[in-house]
UniProtKB/TrEMBL annotation:
UniProt key word Transmembrane: yes
Residue ranges of coiled coil: none
Keywords carried by this UniProt record: Membrane, Transmembrane, Transmembrane helix
Region of interest (Disordered), ranges: 1-28, 63-85
InterPro entries to which the protein is assigned, alphabetical: DUF3379
Protein name: DUF3379 domain-containing protein
Biased composition (Polar residues): 1-11, 65-76
Organism name: Pseudohongiella nitratireducens
Length: 259
């Protein structure tokens, strides 16, 4: 079972009891951490649902109010009924509606938590890319200008292209363009290096390997971001002082997949 299938099943059911799921889980500490986090989140959601209390006798009170408002007004001339106090917002709903609203709140909470932090697998991917940049840094000669047509040839082999090469070429100086086995397997990705304001900046992208959300990494020498682009990802690494976000935004807008 590959990481993509495992992550899909883990997010669908972190208590999956399938033998293939258990075997895949036992084979990777990163997967174990991910499942542990998901199970903890699921437990917190269950507790949240239990803690959202429906007011006592809410349904009976709503029915009684409805009956009173539909009466034909007998004896209203002789009796002055007190004006009822304004109902709180939760009193406008029936019990099923209140339960559904509670469930929506909990689901919204879970979505926010899941999408606001990267998974263990995404963090592992980010760290492997960071290590890749360190390992190849001796090849990044910032004085070595090469034409952007070299980047086009490399990208075609990995199923990527830019919406407008001219926009990128006019703004950035290319110094390195190769396809690399960025993930230590048979998947090849494009690895470009441009001349940044504070040294070389690596731009890497690969298709058919989705990530759940943005990953940010930094050590003493490099700072980087990995972001999803449709069914793949885009990664940018440079000096801690480099405007990484600005460079990433430019490439993210231009990058498209042709395969």
């Amino acid at each position: 079972m590959n990481d993509q299938e495992f992550n899909q099943r883990a997010y669908s059911n972190p208590r999956d009891g399938g033998e293939d799921f258990k075997a895949a889980l036992d084979a990777s500490p990163d997967r174990q951490r991910l499942v542990s986090e998901l199970q903890a989140l699921e437990y917190r959601l269950e507790q949240t649902l239990q803690d959202i209390a429906i007011p006592a006798n809410l349904e009976d009170r709503l029915k009684r109010n409805g009956t009173q408002s539909s009466s034909n007004g007998e004896n209203t001339a002789e009796t002055h009924k007190p004006v009822p106090a304004p109902r709180r917002h939760w009193q406008r709903f029936s019990r099923p509606a209140a339960i559904a609203a509670s469930l929506l709140i909990a689901l919204s909470l879970s979505f926010t938590v899941l999408t606001s932090r990267p998974t263990a697998a995404d963090m592992a991917l980010g760290n492997s890319l960071l290590n890749h940049v360190h390992a190849e840094s001796r090849f990044y000669n910032v004085d070595n200008n090469i034409p952007w047509s070299s980047a086009s040839e490399v990208m075609q082999q990995t199923g990527a292209s830019f919406a407008s090469f001219a926009d990128v070429a006019n703004e950035m100086n290319l110094t390195f363009a190769e396809f690399c086995r960025l993930m230590g397997n048979d998947k090849r990705g494009t690895h470009l290096v441009i001349r940044g304001e504070h040294g070389p900046v690596s731009i890497m992208f690969i298709n058919h390997h989705p990530i759940r959300g943005k990953v940010e990494l930094q050590d003493s020498e490099l700072r980087g971001e990995v972001v999803p682009v449709e069914d793949g990802f885009l990664a940018i690494f440079g000096s801690p002082d480099e405007p990484i976000a600005r460079i990433r935004t430019r490439f993210q807008r231009q990058l498209t997949w042709s395969i």
